[in-house]
Amino acid sequence: MTSTEPLLEVTDLVKHFPIKSGVLVEREVGRVRAVDGVSLTLHEGETLGLVGESGCGKSTLCRAILQLIPPSSGSVRFRGQELVGRSRRELRPLRREMQMIFQDPFASLNPRKRVGQIIGDPLELHGLAGGADVRHRVQQLLDRVGLRPEHINRFPHEFSGGQRQRIGIARALALQPKLIVADEPVSALDVSVQAQIVNLLEDLQDELGLSYLFVAHDLGVVRHVSDRVAVMYLGKVVESSGTDGLYNRPIHPYSNALLSAVPIPDPRLNAERERLVLEGDVPSPSDPPPGCRFHTRCPWSTGICATDEPDLLPYGTGHAAACHHPRNIGADSPA
To answer: SS3 for 57?
Structure first.
């Protein structure tokens, strides 16, 4: 059940990376606009899916929300407390309640440490357990994510990809967080293993009351796990809605294109449907086009799209989109 007070509230979050040039004296010659004014809300017990093409800024947004990289500007409030601008010492007690599952289940684990150390170190650092109790707690966490207690003495390279991702999940659960940011947790796994990890995350959410920010580019997975979905394109959120609203009535042309690429299990229906194929490449985030950033690839683009940036407007029942030529709306649209 969700509460009226958001667990996480992100407002106009910006993260730009400077591009520098020079030999003796470096000077800034440009900026990579990885995240450019994103606003999101997430309530307790809710799963917010975040989708978009590779390079649209999803992973950077996740790291900026958790303050793993400092945002350029904007606000991130967790349980009503502002995170931006706080020191590492001030953030430390809040980090217990915010954890992350990384995209690469091998690169995110220290190859020199055994599983017991990887999962147990956070418990000792935050003073939640010590001595023999750490080993007992780690074995309980391994059992909870579907691994055996004897795996505690093994190194990461001794596990499969799915098992390594379970270790990452166990590490994220060690501090009993309220928010878990899952950055494409199943993209590097086989389809059968993906289903196991997704089912595990759902079971843990029901059991522990977790909230997820679930990042993926597989719209089928996002539809299965999410209560709401936000669509990103080139550093901006272009559409957000409840899951059923987005999949049944996508408003932004980019959302329509993403959904048209999702295969339908019925071969006949899959062959008969009309697909929206985008032409051209994604523009560089260091030099985004003026106006609507999607207009260079949009089949419905007109002159206003190249000059005026559209606002994220409401279309009823929690559905919002930023487009001058919205699709699938009626004459009585609230926007």
So the answer is: coil
Distance (Å) of CA 65 to CA 9, 25, 58, 96 = 10, 32, 11, 14
112 — phi, psi (to 5°)?
Answer: -90, -5
Taking the C-alpha atoms of residue 125 and residue 181, their distance in angstroms, rounded to an integer, is 21
Chain mean position to CA 177:
17
In order of 34, 54, 141, 305, 307, the CA distances from 60 in angstroms are: 7, 11, 28, 26, 27
Instruction: Report the distance separating Cα 235 and Cα 285, nearest Å.
Output: 8
Q: 308 by DSSP, 3-state: which?
A: coil
Q: How confident is the model at residue 298 (pLDDT cuts 50, 70, 90)?
A: very high
pTM, two decimals, is: 0.89
Task: Give, rounded to a whole angstrom, the gap between the first and last alpha carbons of the chain.
Answer: 29
Backbone angles phi, psi at 40, to 5 degrees: -145, 155
CA dist 223 and 247 (Å) reads 8
Rounded Cα distance between 123 and 190, Å, is 31
Q: Read off the pLDDT of residues 174-223 as tens digits, 9 standing for 90 and up.
A: 998 999 999 988 887 778 788 888 888 899 899 889 999 999 888 888 98
Extract long-range pairs of 149-156: CB within 8 Å, 24+ residues apart: 151/115, 152/114, 152/115, 152/116, 153/114, 153/115, 153/116, 154/114, 154/115, 155/111, 155/112, 155/113, 155/114, 155/115, 156/106, 156/109, 156/110, 156/111, 156/115, 156/118
Angle, in degrees to the nearest 10, between helices 115-125 and 132-144: 120
Alpha helices in the chain (DSSP H): 58-65, 88-95, 115-125, 132-144, 161-173, 191-208, 219-225, 243-248, 253-260, 267-272
Residue in this structure with the two tokens 């009535």, named with its chain if needed: 249
The Cα–Cα gap between 186 and 209 comes to 21
